[in-house]
Structure to design on (334 residues):
């Protein structure tokens, strides 16, 4: 009897990879939409679901999945705050995740966003698109070799971005609660106040822990940033106080903000509002500050290499659990 998986959030250009990498011959039901309360019935008849970020793995959906006989609730993402681990444990459902995929996918996006703001590329192209080809004073820039870039969170992704900046001769600072030997070889570790005060670009690579660092990068942190600096977030929206950051952009305290993540993004990302407001106050406010504020639709992992890792590791997670009863990537409620 084949093992049937309902995979959610599968884009059209990802279908071939799901099929080509299916070496264990799972019976795949590939669904374009993320899992929601409205489409949970699509999992009926399946043994497992494979989610992506912004899928709804709350108690309501988990209870319904249990009623359908779905014992395995896996996600192909590093983040797993979209799955209620306590509810899954209560239901006897096994949850597993992908602890890492190609770190270059996110680090390259963070690097590109920082450089786009620093060199005023979005600002200039927005003007030329409107027919304005005059060079303005606010398009004046500093060359990369004279920049100081601060990496907050020096895990694999943070260090890969540091390597990119080092490759173009920027000075790179780092801050992490647990400095690594690899980090010490690549960048200069400093304290938080120093990295905020000295950096022309700050890039966040900090995991989100709801009970300890919600909105930790707040108004006080922004106030300590170097005037005219740039902030980039390709980690988790919940680690930042976006209201404070947008205030700083609007006032000119910081030059710009680029983010691949927003709070409540499940109600926005994946949709086309055709130029109309999203209905989310902070998101709409951020959009009005374009091109000083850049938002990408959580595309940090949207590369061929990252997709390969996400799918391959997910398939291995299923195989491990089915053949051994567990996996090194199984998640437990805390």
């Amino acid at each position: 009897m084949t093992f049937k998986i309902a995979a959610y959030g599968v884009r059209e250009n990802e279908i071939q990879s799901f099929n080509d990498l299916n070496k264990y011959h799972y019976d795949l039901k590939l669904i374009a939409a993320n899992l929601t309360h409205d489409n949970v019935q699509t999992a009926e008849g399946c043994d497992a679901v494979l989610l992506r970020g912004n899928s709804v793995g709350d108690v309501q959906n988990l209870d319904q999945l249990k009623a359908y006989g779905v014992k395995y609730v896996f996600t192909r993402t590093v983040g797993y705050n979209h799955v209620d681990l306590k509810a899954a444990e209560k239901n006897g459902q096994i949850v597993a995740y992908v602890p890492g995929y190609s770190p270059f996918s996110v680090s390259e996006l963070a690097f590109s966003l920082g450089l786009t703001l620093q060199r005023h590329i979005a600002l200039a192209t927005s003007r030329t698109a409107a027919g304005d080809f005059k060079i303005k004073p606010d398009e004046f820039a500093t060359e990369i070799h004279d920049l100081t870039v601060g990496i907050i969170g020096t895990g694999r992704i943070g260090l890969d971005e540091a390597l990119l900046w080092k490759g173009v001769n920027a000075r790179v600072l780092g801050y992490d609660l647990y400095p690594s030997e690899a980090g010490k070889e690549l960048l200069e570790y400093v304290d938080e106040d120093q990295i905020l005060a000295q950096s022309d670009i700050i890039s966040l690579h900090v995991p989100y822990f709801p009970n300890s660092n919600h909105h930790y990068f707040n108004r006080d942190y922004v106030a300590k940033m170097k005037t005219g600096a740039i902030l980039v977030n390709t980690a988790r929206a919940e680690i930042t106080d976006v209201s404070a950051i947008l205030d700083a952009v609007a006032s000119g305290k910081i030059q710009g903000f680029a983010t691949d993540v927003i709070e409540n993004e499940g109600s926005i990302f994946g949709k086309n509002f055709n130029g109309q407001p999203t209905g989310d106050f902070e998101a709409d406010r951020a959009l009005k500050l374009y091109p000083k504020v850049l938002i990408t639709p959580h595309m940090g992992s949207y590369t061929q290499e990252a997709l390969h890792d996400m799918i391959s590791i997910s398939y291995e997670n299923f195989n491990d659990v089915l053949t051994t009863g567990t996996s090194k990537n199984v998640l437990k409620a805390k």
The CA atoms of residues 41 and 168 lie 51 Å apart.
